[in-house]
From TrEMBL:
Zn(2+) binds at C121, C124, C140, C143. It is an enzyme of class 2 (transferase). Binds 1 zinc ion per subunit. 2 residues (Tyr-61 and Arg-64) present in a large hydrophobic pocket are probably involved in substrate specificity. They are important for desuccinylation activity, but dispensable for deacetylation activity. It is found in: Cytoplasm. Belongs to the sirtuin family. Class III subfamily. NCBIfam families: PRK00481.1-3. This is NAD-dependent protein deacylase. PANTHER family: NAD-DEPENDENT PROTEIN DEACYLASE SIRTUIN-5, MITOCHONDRIAL-RELATED. The keyword Cytoplasm applies. It comes from Pseudodesulfovibrio indicus. Its cofactor is Zn(2+). Pfam families: SIR2. The gene is cobB.
Amino acid sequence: MVKAMLGGDRRVVVLTGAGVSAESGVPTFRGRDGLWRTHRPEDLARPDAFAAHPELVWEFYNWRRELVRKCEPNPAHLALAALERAIPNFLLITQNVDGLHVRAGSRKILEMHGSLWQVRCTVCSHAREDHGDLPEMPECPVCGHLLRPGVVWFGEPLVPGVLRLAIEAVGKADVFLSVGTSSLVQPAASFYQLAKDHGAVTVEINLEPTPSTGFMDFALHGMAGDILPELIAGLSD
């Protein structure tokens, strides 16, 4: 039934979360992955933490960059890139910052929380994509001040315009897929309701039930890397 709804001229919006990248070996920082050394990641991913201990925060992010660099897109990432190529009206909204969707070939994508591979100056407007090895305290080549990771930290607003574009797309969707998300992080956790309110068919694909499961039209539980390739099989590429 879900597979049949993905064809034709339907407008499809997909929201992905940490569960998708967990299948590539990227830590979710939940459960046994919940600590980096003796620190909780949510205590480091904050503007005040960076202001007080920039060297510690950069050490954490450089560790994350090195870990993710060794990870590869999994079948779920590849299936979503193929779905984009098969459907004219498609948008992928991701809460992940690892860049694996882009490496898999996704181009119609909104990275709601930024990217590990972006850096920007804490003072001037300099920003760039950088996949190389960064020094412990990288400096801006324009003004010499400290660079910071190009991600959205706890307590910070989303990148200007990104939330507006996401809400517009979700509100126009015919089919909304929530893949690998806990349905706990706002505002993305409310997207399924926005889609449903505007008449979209809502589908959850997750390893286990979430707080949103009972409100979805369809809930498919298992590994996204198993489910998504089956859903797109037979769609023109």
